[in-house]
Specification:
It holds the Pfam family Radical_SAM. With 303 residues, this protein is an alpha/beta fold. It is built from nine helices and nine strands. It is globular.
């Protein structure tokens, strides 16, 4: 199959750190308390934000690790806002510094968080951090009280997990959008197995990319084993339009086809609306799987 021409770059995940207070067994980024902020400097990130804005990117999502642990996050949010980018921060919301609440409000930031159960013990078992459920729940409430938009994602990690109850609790708190997903076989969740293109959803590099703390650009947050290039040695546009990116995109298309093949989980992509009726039951997040099981599936908005 001939190399696929990459689309316009409308959205970018900016993974500013691999450090996280939690140590979830299903973490696709393999982040945790031993993670680092990598080699990207603040100047590097500011340059990347400028280059994305110049390319017509609409939204960025700051992720980790836990992005609120990155000390210069307010500076990056201020710069992104100044360049007209929409901003979302995907946080575990286990701890939010006072200055971050001010920055979220000042720069019109949206928040997203993962939630695993309405039972605090079960939630804490998933995150590996005692008290995480209580803190996350309290900070979701605080964000909503401050008028900060929040969306939630419930990931089915283990059999019998109270995922539907978790989704209902978020809704009861006032979270208007709750998505769902299953565990994806990447990072620690792969349990040592090599990642494959077939495990991806097929949307990779479709109007989106991810940039990691070492400067590597990936077609999505899960496809970090498919490096498009590095923004420390080339501009975002040069990497996005480069030969390596074209090869990676062609490899993905060879497996998944050239069209939009399945829903991008709203757990990860803010431009997607919640699917129905599968969310928040998280029973069928991939239309192909739903079809095989004979179940119905709603449509997620991909742009």
């Amino acid at each position: 199959m001939a190399p696929t021409t990459l689309s316009a770059l409308r959205f970018a995940w900016l993974e500013v750190t691999g450090l996280c207070q939690e140590s979830c067994s299903h973490c696709y980024a393999d982040s945790g308390p031993k993670g680092t902020h990598g080699t990207m400097t603040v100047a590097d990130w500011l340059r990347v934000i400028d280059q994305l804005a110049d390319m017509g990117t609409v939204d960025v999502q700051f992720i980790g690790g836990e992005p609120t642990l990155y000390p210069n996050l307010p500076d990056l949010m201020e710069h992104a806002r100044g360049r007209g980018l929409g901003i979302e921060v995907f946080s575990n919301m286990a701890h939010v510094r006072p200055e971050l609440w001010d920055a979220f409000t000042r720069y019109g930031v949206k928040l997203a968080t993962s939630y695993y159960s309405d039972d605090s013990a079960e939630h804490d078992q998933v995150t590996g951090l005692r008290g995480s459920h209580r803190r996350t729940r309290a900070n979701v409430q605080k964000a909503l009280e401050l008028g900060i938009p929040v969306r939630g994602g419930v990931v089915a990690v283990r059999s019998g997990q109270r995922v539907e109850e978790a989704a209902r609790e978020l809704v009861s708190l006032g979270v208007p959008q709750v998505g769902g997903d299953r565990t994806r076989a990447f990072g620690r969740a792969a349990q040592g197995a090599a990642p494959t293109i077939r495990d991806l959803c097929g949307h990779c590099a479709y109007e989106k990319c991810a940039i990691g703390p070492m400067g590597d650009m990936w077609p999505c947050v899960l496809g970090r084993f498919l490096t498009l290039g590095n923004v420390k040695t080339a501009s975002v546009a040069e990497v996005w339009k480069g030969a390596q990116a074209a090869r990676v995109t062609a490899d993905i298309a060879a497996v998944h086809g050239t069209g939009v093949q399945s829903c991008t989980p709203p757990q990860f992509l803010p431009m997607c609306g919640p699917c129905g009726p599968c969310v928040p039951s998280v029973g069928h997040c991939d239309p192909r799987e739903a079809k095989q099981r004979g179940g119905g599936v709603g449509r997620g908005r991909t742009a």
